[in-house]
Design brief:
Two copies of one chain form a homodimer. Chain A is α/β, with parallel strands linked by helices and 394 residues long. Chain A folds into two domains: 13-42 and 293-392, Aspartate Aminotransferase, domain 1 (Alpha-Beta Complex); 50-289, Aspartate Aminotransferase, domain 2. The first copy, chain A, has eleven helices and 15 strands. Chain A has helices at 16-30, 50-63, 79-91, 107-113, 132-140, 183-196, 262-273, 279-288, 291-318, 341-352, 378-392; strands at 37-38, 101-104, 124-128, 145-149, 167-171, 199-203, 229-234, 247-250, 256-257, 260-261, 322-324, 330-334, 354-355, 357-358, 369-373. The first copy, chain A, has a seven-stranded mixed sheet with strand order 2-8-7-6-5-3-4, sandwiched between helices. A four-stranded antiparallel sheet of chain A has the order 11-12-15-14. In chain A, helix 6 links the parallel strand 5 (167-171) and strand 6. The longest helix of chain A has 28 residues, at 291-318. The model of chain A has no long low-confidence stretch (mean pLDDT 96). At the A-B interface, helix 2, helix 4, helix 5, helix 7 and helix 8 of A face helix 2, helix 4, helix 5, helix 7 and helix 8 of B.
Chain lengths: 394, 394
């Protein structure tokens, strides 16, 4: 009899977005005339940039003609895109060679797949509140999870302390809190990882939202990171690729554990378990790294940043504690009047038809907090912000 | 200290395509004037069909405008594509519901990822000669491999016998042999799997090449398969998607092991470890399943079939044993004059500049056999076939 992977039985059902949908549908059926302002889900709303679309069209045309047709792509990424990513790092002063860059179908895919590199006996450290997939992917792999809770007392940017785990997830700028590690704090984690031989999985999906020049976009801006870190990046929020799918991962050549080179292992993994990412999408992605592409994606990012500002200005006026909002697309607030995060959710929905995400959905230490996303339509965001101000300024 | 996955140390280096490249480069440098006829690698050469390209362009335009823009896709596939695939099965008399269809980035990706469903204590049965990734993906997962060798004596279509394994790989039409299981032989495997509670991973990547109406395209044409099989399909060879990337997988609702439902586990896996397949590519893929799409892809497939026929006619005239070539894009021949497969490779390269793939690269029982692919240019295939005839008819 085939034995299934019984680790799945250890997964907790996440009812977060399901419950949100149920509550919203219920409200809408009782009040079909009321417009709902959705500041909940972290999906982008602006279309792909013109220069990306132009290259996508050109790549489709390449696939339409025998002379320009592309069959199987190199499993670790097309050379033109690996080179474009490496140049992008160099422009920020980070030396990464082309073949340290691995093209993926997106950060969420890669965050799951990369676990193939590690023995299941190594525990995973998850800083909470956190993106739920970190925990679930490790439970499926049979790995022990060490939860490191944080809160407003440490600005949601904890230090390593005495956490006992060798696979460390750091997401900065953070989802859901919007908090960003500065160089000094990140250097402590790099030191800790090098000292104990741990590996940091650095989720940099939101790096393009950093505007403060003192903050690191990449963990490889920190000395010592090349011997302890893997960086996982995505064009989802950077260039609106949530539905178009492309990411990239950096594994430095120096990264070894137990005498095994993780980059070489990853090459072997990709050549076994994939046939590369779509030529069409890689071609579109390369446009993001051109001068014109950078200009165009930052026009979109600035719209989201402006949305975030509209929200943080309201919380400033109301005197509500928050983090994020600058250098990050999420604003993470403390629920007013000691409401739980689901109470606050219901309050906003019923009173002013604004939807956010209850912090309890990101781990128990997220209770009492609430996430707003800046990815919604600008006009909707402005109306929602006004309504929040009027409601909470009573 | 983080412990790496030491199973990687058990992987054997595959020098197959690397050695082929070395030998070809060496020959070409000594004979720069000689043209090489490449009937080795299993990659397509014809461009995507017009109706697929049209839909890819339309999908890029959708992503270019806010009103039609698509963000995150459902992790298990876009409803329009799951529906199109299910309808395609129904047209062949196989009842599959939309939510038994899971859209993937391709069969090779899925064949690796799907192993997440199984405990590593269940051994994997690989019928050899075989696509090397079956073995390697299971070695990375720490699974024991049971090799079932076959040969011309059973037409490379073995029966279950007393093989002791619970995860059974069947590729039909087969890569590399081109052999196709008929209903009766496949039914034996289905019975065997149901009796011992094994699961068959049915790789149907080449089903579109079947022309004999008596042969099954899908394992779900066999009674009892819904309780023991997962079918993994690809548009790579069906519609020239090797570099465009899209596949689909069917997990029947009835498929349970140890009280766990494999389809439900897969939904949980996909929602944790992916964010779905690119909207653009799914839109292009849907065009394959339209009436026009089926007509256009079969025009291309017929060109490859004609190439295969050109080759098999030569082997018929020469009296060389082979299988495949009809109902499959590969022709698998017995090397003449008791040559080893690498000796035959060198002989063809040096004498007539035709490249094929030595059977020894697909497992030890492939020694003495040789694979020709029908995916090359038609004129090249015709010249290569003539040269083979002249060389071996001495």
């Amino acid at each position: 009899m085939l034995i299934p992977n019984t680790n799945y039985n250890q997964l907790k059902q996440s009812y977060l977005f399901h419950n949100i949908a149920l509550k919203v549908n219920d409200f809408q059926s009782r009040h079909p005339d009321k417009k709902i302002y959705r500041l909940g889900i972290g999906d982008v709303s602006l279309p792909l940039c013109p220069c990306v679309c132009e290259q996508l069209h050109a790549a489709v045309e390449d696939q339409a003609h025998a002379e320009t047709f592309h069959g199987y792509m190199p499993e670790c990424g097309a050379p033109f895109l690996r080179e474009a990513v490496a140049k992008h790092y160099k422009a920020r002063g980070v030396n990464i060679s082309d073949n340290e860059v691995y093209i993926s179908s997106g950060a969420s895919d890669e965050l799951g797949d990369i676990l193939d590199l590690f023995d299941k006996s190594s525990a995973a450290l998850v800083i909470e509140p956190a993106y739920p997939a970190y925990v679930d992917a490790n439970i499926i792999a049979g790995r022990k999870i060490v939860h490191l809770a944080c809160g407003a007392y440490n600005s949601f940017l904890p230090e390593p302390g005495d956490a006992d785990a060798d696979l460390i997830y750091i997401c900065s700028p953070n989802n859901p809190t919007g908090a960003v590690f500065d160089r000094e704090k990140l250097a402590k984690w790099v030191r800790y990882a090098n000292e104990r031989g741990a590996v940091i999985l650095f989720d940099a999906a939101y790096e393009a939202f950093i505007e403060d020049e003192a903050l690191p976009h990449s963990i490889f801006e920190i000395e010592g990171a090349r011997t302890c870190a893997i960086e996982i990046c995505s064009l989802s929020k950077t260039a609106g690729f949530t539905g178009t799918r492309l990411g990239y991962t950096v594994i430095p050549k120096e990264l070894e554990r137990g005498g095994m080179n993780l980059g070489e292992m990853w090459v072997r993994n990709r050549t076994t378990k994939t046939n590369g990412v779509s030529y069409i999408i890689q071609k579109g992605a390369a446009a993001v790294f051109t001068e014109q592409g950078q200009k165009q994606i930052h026009q979109n990012i600035n719209i989201y940043k402006q949305n975030a500002k509209v929200l943080t200005q309201v919380f400033d006026k109301l005197g509500i504690w928050y983090c994020g909002g600058s250098n990050a697309p999420y604003v993470w607030i403390q629920c007013p009047a000691n409401m739980t995060s689901w109470e606050f959710f219901d309050y906003l929905l019923n009173e002013i038809q604004v939807i956010g995400t209850p912090g309890a959905g990101f781990g128990s230490c997220g209770e009492g907090y609430f996430r707003f996303s800046s990815f919604a339509d600008t006009q909707d965001t402005e109306i929602a912000a006004q309504r929040i101000y009027q409601l909470l300024n009573k």
